[in-house]
Amino acid sequence: MSIRKILGRTGLVLVALVAVFLVARAILNYTTGKKLEKFLAEAKAKGLPVSDTDLGPACPGPANAQSLWKAAAALFDGQYRAVVSTNVRKTTNLNPEMTNLFEARPLDEKSRSLIRGAIDKNRRPIDFLLEASGRPCFRETDRRVFSDPSGVSASVNMLHLIKLLGFEALFRAEGGDVPGGLSEWTKGFRFVRLTMKEPEIINALIAISNAKSLLIVLNRIVDGRAVGRDDLAALLKELDVEAWRAAVAGSYKGERVFRIETGRDVLRGRLDALEAGSGRRFVLWLARPWVRTQLMRQYSEFDEIEALFGEPYFQSRPRMNAYDGQKERQPWYQQLPDGGISNISAMGLKEASLEALMETARIGLAARIYWAREKRLPAAVADLVPSVLPREPLDPFTGKPFVFRVDKDGLLVYSLGSNEKDDGGRGTYSIAQLVTPKDDDWSWRDTIR
């Protein structure tokens, strides 16, 4: 047989194989497309979100606190003059100052001057946040705001502004206006809780960080100061741990929708919706049937994730870690369209540390109410149940009662933290502590008198 005939027949075979492949790909593309449509329709019939409109009722402009949030973030000024250094413009992220509060160390005059300068520079943004706390809803109108650098910058600004608001509330209390300081603190905390009405993970992360900052401030406002029983009772009502846990779990509902929208962008050929290294346009064209399959698989995984976040952390942590370990071993092709769902254990750690701070605050405030009524401190948390607390809170890291100590210095109640070791109530406020399990105790201290 001549070379020409061999090449000709080989060419025909290759053409036939390509034709078969293209037909098979077209059939798969059509059938997976129909399957995805049916899958999403069934999910919606079950009450699961598949679009933005499924995430909750509309939040019209005048009611939406998000507009004030954006205005405050846009006006934030991170540079200001300190009284102690009038010729140098200084900036601060307030983390060293927050660390001092967390460790119950007094702020030096330089730090106070820096913070007061920042508050003066940001009076209008802070007022916007206080006003926003009275609005009924918070919804993001641009679903892709956090993929834009300006959106990320606004989020960082919000972290700073909440800290400034907290410090202003503390300074008011230190100046003798404890009710005024608590009123401002409550508005700030309500605003932070309001942001959780936008069900997305990024909002939950920001809200958790902001709530933790404010809880640290609350401890310093209350510590050693006379606080009325009505004010203490009102603060207890603000600290609804179950509502926060449910809100964090609910943030994954928004993530469901985000994954679907991202997948649709990938299917439309928008390569910017893919993470780096996920493939080129031709590979994407070939992979569309597989992308649809992965979308359905990933969407279903959220059932398990939401259930994990609905449980106490000490129960769900082993399964969260196992889930993340499985994701790390997952082959690359199962990470389409956007890298898969991973690192839920870090989110669980953040939420648990917030619960620890909130529960210790609740115990500390309840002990204050008990002291005002009985003229003595309780010997144990159990003494507060059910007259002040409906149940005895459990440490989210251990599932056991919090450490509760009363001595000549007053009251100390704390969680053992993720290392599950008793460090005597000593803790450090640092970025590493907020994102890794290398923390120590989360505590509430009060020299009640």
| Secondary-structure content class | mainly alpha
Distance separating the two termini: 106 Å
How much β-strand is present in the residues?
5-15%
| Number of helical regions | 14
What is the 3D shape? elongated
- Succession of helices and strands: HHEEHHHHHHHHHHHEEHE
Count of the domains? 2
Radius of gyration: 27 Å
Q: Helicity level, as a percent range?
A: 55-70%
Low-confidence stretches: 81-89, 144-150, 273-279, 431-437
| Largest sheet properties | 3 strands, antiparallel
Structure summary, number of beta strands: 5
Tell me, rounded to a whole number, the average pLDDT.
85
User: Order of strands in the sheet with the most strands?
Assistant: 3-4-5
Structural summary, described in words:
The chain is mostly helical and 449 residues long. It folds into 2 domains: 3-54 and 250-347, no CATH class; 56-222, no CATH class. 60% of the residues lie in helices and 6% in strands. It is built from 14 helices and 5 strands. It has a 3-stranded antiparallel sheet with strand order 3-4-5. Strands 1-2 form a two-stranded antiparallel sheet. Helix 10 packs antiparallel against helix 11 (281-309) and helix 10 (241-267) runs antiparallel to helix 13 (344-374). The termini are far apart. Mean pLDDT is 85; it is low at 81-89, 144-150, 273-279 and 431-437.
Secondary-structure map with pairings?
Layout: H1 3-45, H2 66-75, E1 79-82, E2 85-91, H3 95-102, H4 109-121, H5 123-132, H6 149-174, H7 178-195, H8 201-222, H9 229-238, H10 241-267, H11 281-309, H12 313-328, H13 344-374, E3 403-407, E4 410-415, H14 431-435, E5 442-446
Antiparallel strand pairs: 1-2, 3-4, 4-5
